[in-house]
């Protein structure tokens, strides 16, 4: 059972928005006393996802939430865009797969950095990616 | 336009990244640095990232690119001062930065560069000696 | 509870206390090593005062009502301290049960001729005291859980000491099973220590690790790679023959990692890498 304790929505359309978003994510992580290494994992994951959103969908929206599972608090980030969508999610989640000119580490790497990773995508409609990083874990 | 300053010190170029890199800044740095290596005929590039709190796959790729490009121009690249949290994250992300030399701090990085360049120079001396003997 | 009984108990408070103390002191499980008789008496008196003061209330059996808060607070406090002091559950339980007996004994003496009234009042007292026992146990277990959590923290702390064996060389002996959570702590401590001491070599000694499977090996490889990214070298030592066997049988590739059989040979390797020499000095030589 995961409860959402606070919500914050940020529009990401320009490069400056990315910096703003990262700062907000960091503030949120610090607020729930997340350790430095986990903060870095979360911020790196956010950085990967927001770049994807900018590159493939020209921006989108990120929802920052503080969530609680009773014992543990965490940060949940939901990235939604109205981009082209991902035709083959299984392939996109494989190391080394990329349609753009990248290393293809974005999605699988991000998954390794966070505790929970969920991706939903429809071709022509957009993509929603949700990640959770717990303060301890 | 923001730029990251590149300092020249003898045969080495020094770069200290004091801000979290955003993509364009990183791309500019890559271009500037390679240009500078070529112009100054530098033998080594030292990049201090001790103040950088996040390196994602894009930044990791830029660092790798700088190392590979400099190598082609006959310069070694050493990345110094990576934070523990950044190192752990990069490994988990799947980016071990193969081909990039690393050192704990500027001083150790400088020594590493010197030793690498000495080795190559010694080799060249050796070859010259051999040539003399052959004659 | 009828007013009469309440007044009666109020009046007999002293006697109940004496009886209760007698019960407690006569108990074989009395822990004079953990709590002095005076302290026990103080605790008991405090509880009786709060309890009997409350008996007149309308919410007699409803422990959730506010008027019971002081009693539960006192009882909870006692249970938690006892859990921390190392009392057994039985000893803690007897503390409340012996009070029940004392109260029932007094009631019996005071209402000798009215069996019906005695039965009615006893049932109420029983129900109340049982509820209080449950509260005591809950708090006691919570106290014990806190102790366990604290100990778990302490174990993770002490089980990963980073030792500075030489200027520039760190050693980290790992004892016990390596799981993901533990590797995380080990890795973070080691890397942090490398930064703080400016050490260029770290030795990870796994003599105390009972088994290495592919997951543990992955964790080790991760630690070594992260150390390298920071600009230091990580050596793995203390690999027992049976571990070498399993590693090869599982097809784990450790060829990119410097491995040594013992901590001593890892140290010797580190000295060579740092261009240090250890020699025996000639005993005849004078300074």
Automatic annotation (TrEMBL), chain A:
Protein name: Anti-sigma regulatory factor
Cited InterPro entries: HATPase_C_sf, HATPase_dom
Occurrences of domain Histidine kinase/HSP90-like ATPase (ranges): 37-137
Organism: Mucilaginibacter segetis
Residues forming coiled coils: none
Recorded superkingdom: Bacteria
Pfam families given in the database record: HATPase_c
TrEMBL record, chain B:
Domain of life the protein comes from: Bacteria
Pfam family, one: STAS
STAS domain span: 1-113
InterPro entries named in the record: Bact_StressResp_Reg, STAS_dom, STAS_dom_sf
CDD domains hit by this protein: STAS_RsbR_RsbS_like
Protein name (Swiss-Prot/TrEMBL): STAS domain-containing protein
Biological source species: Mucilaginibacter segetis
Automatic annotation (TrEMBL), chain C:
Entry-linked Gene3D superfamilies: STAS domain
The keyword Phosphoprotein appears for this protein: yes
Full protein name: STAS domain-containing protein
Every STAS domain range: 159-270
Keywords, sorted A to Z: Phosphoprotein
UniProt xrefs under InterPro entries: Bact_StressResp_Reg, RsbRD_N_dom, STAS_dom, STAS_dom_sf
Top-rank taxon, per record: Bacteria
Keyword Transcription regulation included in the entry's annotation: no
Stored Pfam families: RsbRD_N, STAS
């Amino acid at each position: 059972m995961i409860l959402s304790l606070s919500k914050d929505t940020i529009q990401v359309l320009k490069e400056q928005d990315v910096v703003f978003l990262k700062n907000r994510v960091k503030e949120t992580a610090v607020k729930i006393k997340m350790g430095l290494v986990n903060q870095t994992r979360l911020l790196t994951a956010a950085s990967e996802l927001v770049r994807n959103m900018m590159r493939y969908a020209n921006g989108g929206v990120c929802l920052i939430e503080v969530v609680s599972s009773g014992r543990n608090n965490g940060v949940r980030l939901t990235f939604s865009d109205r981009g082209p969508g991902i035709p083959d999610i299984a392939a996109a989640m494989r190391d080394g797969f990329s349609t753009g000119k990248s290393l293809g580490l974005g999605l699988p790497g991000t998954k390794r950095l966070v505790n929970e990773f969920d991706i939903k995508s429809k071709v022509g409609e957009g993509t929603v990616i949700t990640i959770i990083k717990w303060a301890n874990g | 336009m923001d730029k990251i300053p590149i300092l020249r010190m003898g045969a080495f170029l020094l770069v200290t990244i004091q801000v979290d890199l955003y993509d364009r800044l990183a791309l500019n740095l890559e271009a500037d640095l390679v240009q500078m290596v070529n112009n100054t005929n530098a033998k080594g590039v030292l990049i201090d990232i001790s103040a950088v709190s996040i390196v994602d796959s894009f930044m990791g790729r830029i660092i790798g690119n700088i190392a590979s490009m400099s190598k082609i121009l006959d310069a070694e690249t050493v990345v110094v001062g990576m934070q523990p949290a950044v190192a752990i994250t990069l490994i988990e992300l799947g980016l071990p930065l193969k081909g990039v030399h690393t050192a704990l701090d500027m001083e150790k990085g400088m020594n590493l560069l010197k030793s690498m360049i000495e080795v190559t120079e010694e080799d060249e001396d050796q070859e010259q000696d051999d040539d003399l003997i052959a004659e | 509870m009828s007013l009469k009984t309440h007044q009666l108990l109020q009046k007999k408070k002293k006697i109940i206390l004496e009886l209760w103390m007698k019960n407690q002191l006569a108990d074989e499980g009395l822990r004079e090593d953990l709590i002095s008789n005076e302290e026990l008496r103080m605790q008991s008196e405090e509880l009786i005062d709060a309890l009997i003061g409350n008996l007149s209330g309308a919410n007699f059996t409803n422990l959730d009502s506010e008027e019971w808060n002081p009693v539960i607070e006192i009882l909870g406090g006692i249970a938690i301290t006892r859990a921390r002091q190392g009392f057994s559950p039985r000893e803690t339980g007897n503390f409340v049960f012996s009070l029940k007996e004392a109260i029932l004994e007094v009631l019996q003496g005071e209402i000798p001729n009215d069996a019906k009234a005695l039965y009615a009042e006893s049932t109420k007292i029983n129900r109340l005291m049982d509820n209080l026992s449950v509260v005591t146990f809950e708090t006691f277990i919570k106290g014990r859980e806190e102790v366990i959590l604290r100990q778990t923290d302490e174990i993770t702390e002490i089980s990963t000491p980073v030792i500075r064996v030489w200027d520039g060389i760190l050693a980290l002996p790992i004892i016990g099973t390596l799981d993901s959570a533990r590797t995380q702590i080990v890795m973070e401590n080691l890397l942090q220590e490398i930064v703080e001491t400016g050490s260029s070599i770290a030795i990870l000694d796994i003599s105390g690790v009972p088994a290495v499977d592919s997951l543990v090996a992955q964790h080790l490889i991760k630690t070594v790679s992260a150390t390298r990214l920071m600009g230091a070298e990580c050596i793995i030592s203390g690999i027992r023959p049976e571990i070498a066997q399993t590693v090869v049988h599982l097809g784990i590739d450790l060829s990119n990692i410097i491995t040594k059989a013992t901590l001593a040979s890892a140290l010797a390797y580190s000295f060579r890498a740092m261009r240090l020499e250890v020699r025996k000095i000639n005993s005849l030589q004078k300074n």
